[in-house]
Specification:
It is an enzyme of class 3 (hydrolase). With about 800 residues, this protein is an alpha/beta fold.
């Protein structure tokens, strides 16, 4: 390359200017010089009979280039500038274009080039930034004969193979006509090609099948390898065989796209037409006075809601004021939306709408007995409650608190009460509630303000006298957002809830017709003022017989129905069911029992499917295959000197509480306590030690026993926290048994608080403690005399077979325990 060439302006690419007058091209090319640029490019320059034997190669990667194509190409300037410089300096301006696959042209080897490519004439070269653009006019196929330069710029020696064709052959003419018809069929359904495609098509005829076939292949959207296969096929007849299916596939795709476009356009036109018609209809109706705008529609909607309601005068006055405000506000203003939402809530409430109570005691007993086994005392309390309401005329304004361990049926009893009364039921849990606004609502000044849960309940049940259950009331929380327990005082106080004020509604509501039912596990965390407003009904744990009935009548049928399992496919024996209750589910409620039964259903389903059985039998013998080893073994009552069984109450129900006293050594006097005892229980132990120490001789023990004895008193299950005064009598008995060297060799349990003077004070949880004793097969009990009434109120099935001794003073206890 000369120095003059090196000094040329690369940005303008003067050396690549397509100056047809200055190049040594054929006469055919010179004839195009005086035509317009567009005509010059669109007119196919006939192939020179003297195509060069050596040409530079340009790899392309999207799709191969065909001899029938005239198409602009864009290439990387930095990589191919030298190649295009050399092509521009040739008299023939011919370049070889070869398809190298779809992976790109960044890292190529000469082996990646195909043997067949297309020789093109280069027109209109220009450089822009990092790219070179030019128009390539396909001329003829070439075959690489020899590589002269295997590095860019690539230079090869080529031959131009002839394309065998018999244009007069009937089959060839038929294929040519089919291709022409296919192209014409593609024109109206794919406007992508336009007038230029028609211009090219007019130049081809069935007598030129080669260029026609190449052109048909070039306009398809087939993949690069398929098109390269067409390009490399030299016999025209065989090439036409390959191109015609590609063309038909292109027509089918174009037809599908056209159909989709027509459907979309039709839908858009229908929607636009409907929109315009609706707008016109609104205008016409408004002009005729038979239509209303959105504001008027809202006002009419709210007024229509109030027609069937008995709205208090003060509430109606507020609604009228808000309706007047709504009628003058713009519908797009924020205040319009706020006012509309406020009126929506006010008019959705059931002002004056009540349901008729079913104060039928027989119906109430039927519903309670159908839904619940056991709990006879609770059912009687509920029936008494309904009987009282029969004389009053209604049961509104009452607040019932159901207290009991988890899983004993508090929530389900609330539903049964609602069904027995024929009232609507609404439940929401207040456990963990920390914001008083959830009870009394947010003020309307806040964004996203909402009424409280009670107003939402009224909107859902659509009556003023529903049964509303406040679940887990003992788990209310407190935070900087307020105290929900204090907010509930107004709700649950019969003297205040007649004028309950929700902050969002800001009008008075009457809650006196509502029957509130609250549930709790313990009373300790319920504030005193709140607890004072409730009527308490205790639900104790179930004994084994009650659990058996519940499992047979409720839990097992419900599980089979829920899992769509026929009853005959799983045969659970009654003995196995008793073993499940005794060995796997000893808690006060029945939730754990339901989980274990569900586990049996799952295991049985696996057996039915995998072993292809008709029936699975679950008995005592194979129960461990389904549930594993029992979680609980038969509790063995501890015996020996200084060992006594006490009775304790927990939030999960009653439990037996063995207490052990032992003499460690006689070196010095001392008293040690273990078992993770609370402060109250430690005080009871010290009282028991002091009382025993002062009355040893009275109860026939050695008066000097504790003078040199270091005594250790332990309450087993040391990881479990224990507290309360009810173990005083039991601890005293354990110490006295140690001092008298006399063991208690019969099943006996006791409870009671002991004073320093020997008085036995009453304790709570008598029912739970009796149930715990029966569960451990202990049928002789010592209870405080003051708890006699609590024991007598227990149902007969709990007292059956139980011997109870009542004690006023500890001397009564000692007479029972250490009787001759």
């Amino acid at each position: 390359m000369s120095d003059q060439d090196n000094n040329r302006d690369h940005d303008n690419l003067d050396w690549l200017a397509d100056d047809e007058s200055s190049s040594h091209q054929s006469d055919d090319a010179s004839e195009n010089e005086h035509r317009s640029d567009g005509e010059k490019i669109n007119s196919l320059v006939p192939a020179s009979e003297m195509l060069p034997e050596r040409i530079y190669l340009l790899p392309i990667h999207n799709r191969p280039f065909f001899p029938a194509q005239v198409q602009p190409l864009v290439i990387n300037r930095e990589r191919w500038e030298e190649t295009m410089r050399r092509v521009g300096n040739t008299p023939h301006k011919t370049l070889g274009v070869a398809f190298v696959g779809e992976g790109g042209v960044e890292s190529l080897d000469h082996d990646d080039f195909p043997e067949i490519g297309t020789a093109v004439r280069v027109h209109k070269l220009k450089g822009e930034d990092q790219q070179i653009q030019f128009i390539a006019q396909g001329v003829q196929r070439f075959h690489i004969k020899r590589w002269l330069s295997k590095e860019p710029p690539y230079l090869v020696e080529v031959t131009y193979p002839k394309e065998p064709v018999d244009a007069e052959n009937e089959e060839t003419r038929a294929y040519a006509m089919a291709i022409i018809n296919g192209i014409k069929e593609l024109l109206p359904i794919n406007p992508l090609y336009g007038e230029e495609l028609k211009h090219y098509l007019n130049r081809f005829s069935p007598h030129q099948p080669g260029p026609l076939t190449d052109f048909a292949a070039a306009i398809t959207s087939a993949k690069g390898p398929e098109l390269q296969d067409v390009l490399a096929t030299l016999p025209v007849a065989e090439r036409m065989h390959k191109v015609l299916p590609l063309l038909r596939k292109e027509i089918e795709v174009a037809q599908l796209q056209s159909e989709i476009s027509e459907q979309v356009n039709a839908q858009m036109q229908d929607r636009q037409r409907e929109f315009f018609l609706r707008e016109q209809l609104k205008v016409i109706q408004r002009e005729l006075g038979i239509s209303k705008d959105d504001r008027e529609n809202d006002v009419d909607t709210f007024r229509n809601r109030l027609e069937s309601l008995v709205v208090p005068e003060r509430v109606q006055s507020r609604i009228d004021d808000e309706l007047n405000k709504l009628s003058v506000l713009e519908t797009g203003s924020p205040e319009y939306g706020t006012t509309r939402n406020y009126l929506d809530w006010l008019t959705c409430l059931p002002w004056g709408v009540t349901s008729q109570d079913k104060l039928d005691l027989g119906h109430a007993r039927e519903v309670l007995n159908r839904d619940h086994d056991g709990l006879q005392d609770v059912k009687e309390r509920i029936v008494e409650f309904l009987a009282e309401g029969t004389f009053k005329g209604d049961v509104g304004g009452s607040i019932v608190l159901l207290i009991g361990p988890p899983g004993v049926g508090k929530t389900s009893i609330g539903r049964s009460i609602a069904e027995a009364l024929g009232r609507e039921f609404y439940r929401f849990s207040v456990g963990g509630m920390r914001d008083e606004a959830e009870i009394k609502g947010h003020r309307r000044t806040y964004v996203g303000a909402m009424p409280g849960k009670l107003v939402q309940a009224f909107k859902e049940v659509e009556v003023e006298n529903p049964v509303i259950m406040l679940d887990e009331i003992d788990k209310l929380g407190q935070s900087f957002q307020g105290d929900p327990a204090s907010a509930l005082l107004e709700v649950l106080d019969p003297e205040q809830n007649i004028d309950f004020l929700d902050h969002y509604l800001d009008v008075r509501m009457d809650l006196s017709k509502v029957l509130f039912i609250c549930t709790a596990n313990t009373l300790d965390s319920i504030p005193g003022p709140l607890l004072d407003r409730m009527e308490q009904i205790r639900l104790s744990g179930y004994i084994a017989e009650e659990k058996l009935a519940i499992a047979k009548h409720h839990l097992w049928p419900k599980l089979l129905k829920r899992n769509n399992m026929p009853k005959k496919r799983i045969n659970l024996t009654e003995a196995a069911l008793k073993q499940v209750i005794e060995g796997y589910a000893r808690e006060a409620g029945v939730r754990q029992l339901e989980k274990q039964l569900h586990r049996i259903v799952r295991k049985a389903a696996v057996k039915l499917l995998e072993e292809e059985l008709e029936t699975v039998k679950v008995s005592v013998n194979n129960l461990e295959e389904f549930l594993g080893a029992p979680l609980f073994r038969k509790e063995k009552v501890l015996k020996g000197e200084g060992v006594v069984t006490g009775l304790a109450w927990t939030s999960m129900g009653g439990a037996t509480l063995p207490i052990e006293a032992g003499k460690i050594h006689s070196l010095d006097r001392g008293f040690k306590l273990t078992g993770k005892l609370g402060d109250v229980m430690k005080e009871s132990a010290n009282i028991a030690y002091s009382y025993t120490l002062g009355h040893l001789q009275e109860y026939g023990a050695d008066a000097d026993f504790f003078d040199s004895a270091f005594v250790h008193l332990h309450v087993p299950e040391g990881a479990t926290p224990k507290d309360g005064p009810s173990a005083g009598v039991t601890m005293t008995t354990a110490l006295l048994s140690l001092a008298k060297h006399e063991a208690i060799n019969r099943p006996l349990a006791m409870t009671g608080e002991l004073t320093l003077t020997g008085q036995v004070l009453p304790v709570g949880g008598i029912r739970e403690k009796v149930i715990a004793a029966r569960r451990s097969d202990i049928f002789e009990l010592i209870l405080p005399e003051a708890n006699r009434r609590d024991y007598e109120e227990l149902p007969e099935y709990l007292k059956d077979g139980v011997t109870v001794h009542f004690a006023n003073r500890y001397k009564d206890v000692a007479n029972v325990v250490f009787k001759d």
